[in-house]
Amino acid sequence: MRKTQKKTLITYAIVIIAYIILEIFMKAGMMSSHLKGLLVPMVYYAIAAVALNLCVGILGELSLGHAGFMCVGAFSSAIVSQLLSGAIPDALRFILALIIGVVISALFGMLIGIPVLRLNGDYLAIVTLAFGEIIKNILNSIYLGVDSAGVHLSLKSQMALGLADDGKVLINGAMGITGTPQDSNFTIAIVVLLISLFIVQNMIDSRDGRAIMSIRDNRIASESVGINITKYKMTGFVVSAAIAGAAGVLFSHNIATMQATSQYFGYNVSIMILVYVVLGGIGNIRGSVIAACILYLLPELLRGLNKYRMLIYSIVLIVMMIINWSPALRDKRDKLRKKLMKGAGHGAA
Amino acid sequence: MLSFLNYFVSGLSLGSIYAIIALGYTMVYGIAKMLNFAHGDFIMIGCYMIFTIVSTMGLPPVAGIIVAVIVCTILGVTTEKVAYKPLRGASSPLAVLITAIGVSYLLENAALLIFGADTKSFTSVISWSGITLAGGQLKIQGVTIVTIAVSLLILVFLQLFVHKTREGQAMLAVSQDRGAATLMGINVNKTISITFAIGSALAAIAGALLCSAYPSLTPYTGAMPGIKAFVAAVLGGIGSIPGAMIGGLVLGIIEILSRTYISSQLSDAIVFSILIIVLLVKPTGILGKNIQEKV
Amino acid sequence: MKNYRKVLGLTLAATMAVGMLAGCGSTATGDTATSQTADSAASSADAATSTAAEGGTFKIGVIGPLTGAAAAYGSAVANAAQIAVDEINAAGGMNGYQVELKSEDDELDSTKSVNAYNTLKDWGMQFLLGSVTSGCSIAVSEETKNDNMFQLTPSGSAVDCVKYDNAFRVCFSDPAQGTASAQYIGTHKLADKVGVIYDSSDVYSSGVYQSFETEAANQGFEIVSAEAFTSDNKTDFSVQLQKAKDAGAELVFLPIYYTEASLILAQANTMDYKPTFFGCDGMDGILSVENFDTSLAEGLMLLTPFSADATDDLTVNFVKAYEDKYNGEVPNQFAADSYDGVYAIKAAIEKAGITPDMSISDICEGMKTAMTQISVDGLTSSAITWDASGEPTKEPKAVVIKDGAYALAE
C-alpha cells in the first residue's frame, strides 16, 4: 500500500471509529442532550474546514468567503426543501436539496472564481471577503415568495410580493427562512463528511492535485512547464466552494430558523473556520477535521471559558503561525532536528 | 439640487475618513508588502483611548488625541516587531496575512474583555457645530469640514515626507526593491518600523474623526471601516498616496449616493461589487502602476 | 509533525470522554449550582434521571443573551425571574412546591440557544422561560415542540415565536407593536407626515415596521420616507435622516433597539433636525447608554408596557427589590416581562394542579389549557389573559422622556 493511501485510510478510520463510539453512547442513553445537539454543528464545521483547507493548504489561496458559500448552500437547499416538502419522500427530498445546494454553491464558486483567480494573495482574500458580504447583504434584503401564479421576488417588503392566498413566503428579507425541515442528523452529517474527505483526498492524489500543488509552490515555474493555471485553480476553488456548500446544507437542515446575519455567515465565521484549518495544520486534511471537532466542542463544554475563547484562539493562531512559518525559527528547528537525529543515530550504533 | 449637495457633503465626509484610513493601509502595503488586517482595529483602540481620557477622566480632547496617537504608534510598531517581522521572507505569503487576522482578532477580543460589549456613546472631539448655507437648506457640520481639512493636510504632509526627507526616500527605495535597498545601505527594518508608526498614528487620527462623526464605540467599530478603506486603497491603486486619497473620497461618495438613490440596504453590496469590478477591469486601480513580475 | 498529530488525536479522545462525563454528571451539578433555593426544598438530585420525575421542586429554565451585545436584555430577564422566584419561594412556592431557577447564556445565537436548551434539559427543566430574543426563541420552539415542553418567552416578539401550541409569550408581538404604535400616533394626531428608520437585518425591527406600514393607511397619516439600515452599517444615519428631513417628516418612527437610536438622536441633533421621535419597547434602555447625552432624548416617546416610575404598589415594590439586589440598576421592560412570566407560570400551575412529579409532556398539556384560563395582574398590564394562539391581551402604555427620566405620556 502506498504511504498516502495508508494515511487516507487512517483518516477515514478515525472518523468512522469516532462515529461508532459516539453512536453507541447515544444509543445507550449515556450522552447528554447538550452534547447530542453539538454533534451535527461540529461535523458541518469540520466539513467547512476540509473545504477551506483544500483552498488554503492545497491551492495556496486564502479565501475569507467560505461562510458565503455555506450561506449559498444553506439558503438554496432550504428553499428546495420547503418547496418540495410533502411532495416527495423525505429522504429523496433531502438528497435532492443536498445536490442542489452543492451545485449552486459550485456555480457561485465558479462565478466568483473568474475574477478572483486572476489575482493572488491578499487581493484574493479581500475579494472573497467582499463576495461573502455581498451574498449576505443581498440575501438580507430579498423577499421571495411562491404561489399558484409562480415565483414572486421583491427587494422592498413582504407586502410588495403581492402573494395570493395560497402563497408561501420563502425568504422573508432579514427574517430569513423559517420552517426548514430538520433532516440533518449525525449519521447523515458523517456520511457527508466522509464523502468530502474522499473527494478531497482523491483530488490531492490525482494528476490534477499535483498540478494544483505545483501552482501553489511555484506559479511561474508551473506555468512555464505548460500547466494551465486558471483551469486547475478553478477546479480546486469550485470543489472547495461546493464542499462548503454541503456544510451549509447541513446547517440549514439542522436548525428551523436561519437568517443571513454576520454571526452565522459573516467573514468572522470564515475566519473561525480558518482558525480550525491553521490549528489543524495548513494542508493537513485530517488535522482540520480533528481541530474543528475539538475547537467546536471544547468551549461549548467548558462554557465558563467562553469569554476568553476567542482571545485564546487568536493568541494561539499568531503563535502557531510564527512557530511554523518564521524562516528564522524554521532554520533553528531544522538544525535542532538534525542534531537530535545525529544523537539518536549515535545512540543506536 | 440642494438635497443632492447635502448627500454629496455626507459622502465627502465619509470619504475623507476612508481616505485617512486608506493612507495608512497603502503606506504599509506599499512598503512592507503586507495587508495589515488589524489596521481597522488600531482605529478602535485609538477610539477607546480617547474615550477613556476624555469621557471617563474628563481631560480635554487634545490630550485624548495625543495619547491615542502615542498608544497606537507604540502598538503598531510593537505588533510589527513581534508578530509580522519574524514572518518576513516566509515561504508562503499567506503566513503574514493569517497572522494579521490573528492580531485583528486579538485586539477585538482584548477590547471586548477590557471595555465590554456594550455600545459607548462617544463625545465628539470637535465642538464646532459647522456652517449653514443657502438659508438653512445646506448644513455642513464642523466635523465634516475638519475631517476634509485634516485628510488634505495629511496628504500634503505624506507627499512631502516621502519625497523630501531621507526617511521618505528610504521608504520609496524599500518599496521598489527591498534587496537592492539593503545593498545600498538602507536599514530596511527601521524603515518598515517608521512606516508602521506613521500608519498607526494615522489610524488614531482617523479613529478620532470616525467616532466624532458617528459617535458610537464598540470593539468592532474599526472592522468594517477598515475593510472598506482597504477597498478604497485598492480602488485608488494600492501603494499610491494620492491614489488612496482619491479612492477614499470616491468610495465614500459612491456609498452615500447609492444609499440615497438606489437602496439603503444594498449599499455594502454595491461598494464591494465596485472592488470586484475594479479588479476585473483595471487591477492596478486608478493611479496604480503596472509592475511586471520578475522571475 | 507525527507526534503532533498523535497529540491532537489523544486530545480529541479526551475531549469526548470529558463530554460524556459532563453530560452524565450534569443533573447532579445543576442542583448544587442553584443554592438560592430555600432550605425546605431539599434538592433531591438523582443523576440518572433527566425528567426530574421525583423530587419536590419545579425547575424553570431561562435562556437569553447574558453576554454580548444584547446582554442587557438577557440579564434583565434572568435577574427579574430570580426576584420573582425568590418571592414565590418565600411565600410558600407554586402549588406548595419550591421552585428552582437556572439561567443559560445563548449569546444571541440561535444555535447556542438550542445548546443552552439541551443543557437545561439535562438539568431537569420542566418549564422554559425564554428565549429572550425572537430568532433564538423560534429556534428553541422547534425543540420544545418535539419534547412537548412548556415554553413561555418573556420577550420573543416575532410572530413565529408562538406558532406551536406549547409556546406562549408575555410581550406584545411585533405586529401588535407596529399596529399599536400606528394607532397611537393616529388617535393622538401626533403628526401627518411620518418617517421611518428601521433595521432591515433585524427580525424584530422589520416585523414592527411591516405592520406599522399596513396600519398607517388606516390612521390618516402618511409615511413619507421609510429607510432601512443593516447591522453592518449602523453607524452612519446621515442619509436616512436627511431623507426624512427632505420629505418633511414631523415624526420619525424608530422601531429599533436603543443603541442605534442613541446614534440617530445624536446625528439628528448635529443636523439641526428636531422631529418627534417615537419608538417601541426596544427603545427602552436608551437612558442607560454609557456617556449618552440624555438631553438629546428629551421628548422621545416610546410605546412600552412597563415604566419603572409608575406609582402602583406592584411596580414600586418590584423596582425597589430589583435595585436593592442588583446594585441600583433600574429594571427595564424585559425585566418586567420576565417577572410577569414567572407569575403566569405560577398561576397556570395552580390552576391546573400541576405537581413536580408529572412528566414534562403532562405538565405541558396541563399548562396549555390552564394558560388560557388564567388572568394575571402583572407589571406590564393588569389582567393579562392569553388565548390558545399564545398571544397575550394587554394594554400598551406610552412613555415620554422628560428631564432625563421616563414619564407616562398622556
In short:
Helix content of chain A is 73%, strand content 5%.
List keywords for this structure.
heterotrimer; A: 349 residues; mainly alpha; ABC transporter involved in vitamin B12 uptake, BtuC; three-stranded antiparallel beta sheet; two-stranded antiparallel sheet; 14 helices; 73% helix; globular; C: 410 residues; alpha/beta; Rossmann fold; seven-stranded mixed beta sheet; five-stranded parallel beta sheet; 15 strands
What do you see in this structure?
The complex is a heterotrimer of chains A (349), B (295) and C (410). Chain A has 349 residues and is mainly alpha-helical. Chain A has 14 helices and five strands. In chain A, the strands form two sheets. Chain A has a three-stranded antiparallel sheet with strand order 2-1-3. In chain A, α3 runs parallel beside α5 (122-141). Chain A is globular, with a radius of gyration of 22 Å. The model of chain A has no long low-confidence stretch (mean pLDDT 86). In chain B, strands 1-4 form a two-stranded antiparallel sheet. Chain B has helices at residues 2-32, 39-56, 61-84, 94-115, 142-164, 166-176, 178-183, 188-213, 223-236, 241-261, 267-281, and strands spanning 120-121, 131-133, 138-140, 216-217. The termini of chain B are far apart. Chain B has a single domain, classed as ABC transporter involved in vitamin B12 uptake, BtuC (Orthogonal Bundle). The model of chain B has no long low-confidence stretch (mean pLDDT 88). The radius of gyration of chain B is 19 Å and the shape is globular. Chain B is mainly α. Chain C has 410 residues and is α/β, with parallel strands linked by helices. Chain C has two domains: 54-172 and 317-393, 3-Layer(aba) Sandwich (Rossmann fold), CATH 3.40.50; 175-304, Rossmann fold (3-Layer(aba) Sandwich), CATH 3.40.50.2300. Chain C has helices at residues 2-33, 71-90, 110-123, 134-147, 174-187, 203-216, 238-246, 258-270, 313-325, 333-352, 360-371, and strands at 57-64, 98-105, 127-130, 150-153, 167-169, 193-199, 222-229, 251-254, 276-279, 301-304, 375-376, 384-386, 392-393, 397-402, 405-408. In chain C, the strands form three sheets. A seven-stranded mixed sheet of chain C has the order 7-6-8-9-10-14-15, with helices on both faces. In chain C, strands 2-1-3-4-5 form a five-stranded parallel sheet, with helices on both faces. Chain C has a three-stranded antiparallel sheet with strand order 11-12-13, covered by helices on one side. In chain C, a hairpin with a 5-residue loop joins β12 and β13. Chains in contact: A-B, A-C, B-C. The interface between A and C is large, with 55 and 54 residues.
